[in-house]
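writing this on my phone so excuse typos. first protein, seq and then structure
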Amino acid sequence: MREPATVSVALQLLDTDLPAPAYARPGDAGADLRARHDVTLAPGERALVDTGVAVAIPEGYVGLVHPRSGLAAKHGITVLNAPGTVDSGYRGELKVCLLNTDRSTAYTVRRGERIAQLLLQEVATARFETVAQLPSSERGERGFGSSGTH
């Protein structure tokens, strides 16, 4: 079994009373991000929640902010723009856009609660080349639902 790849990421704690992002268990893909403040989300409401941390993602990588499955399953709380993108040039506080999908129950995110996960992924950038016509493919221009059977 090979060791997982690691990359060094500079981390600034903007709120030193909160724990730094961390992996809950060995082998976890996402490091937990925590709420900096209490926030109550009414049913259907969204809010941008501060995490108290800023990072310097190395060039050639992206940070992806994913929902926590426990919050989603138990309370209907998800990340609205999942996955959120943290570009390598961004140096501001990480913020998570949370959405309460529950139809009837408000949910209060508490300071220090784990609200999302940050994953690092290597990226390739595209070099776009304008062409008069795209090469053909088996799928062609068939869109949504075109790969299913009817």
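second protein below, same order as before
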Amino acid sequence: MNITDVRIRKVDKEGKMKAVVSITIDNEFAVHDIKIIEGEKGAFIAMPSRKNADGEYRDVAHPINSETRRQIQELIMQKYREEIAEA
């Protein structure tokens, strides 16, 4: 799996959400609405989710294993830091 495109839209409002990200995988599959959240232990990504009938949020799309999640998070956070540095 290769992430071939990362698009970051920074959020200007106050709050923990810092950006919304879209990624393209292998120039064939896109995942939208990945969020960059500023947490107590630093920034992390939250995969796209939807609130279900009992009020819980469930991921709509997500990596199947921790290694893939780590790769996606590292690439997104690297691109995010580059955009912050350019601003």
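DSSP finds one helix and six strands in the chain. thats all i got for now
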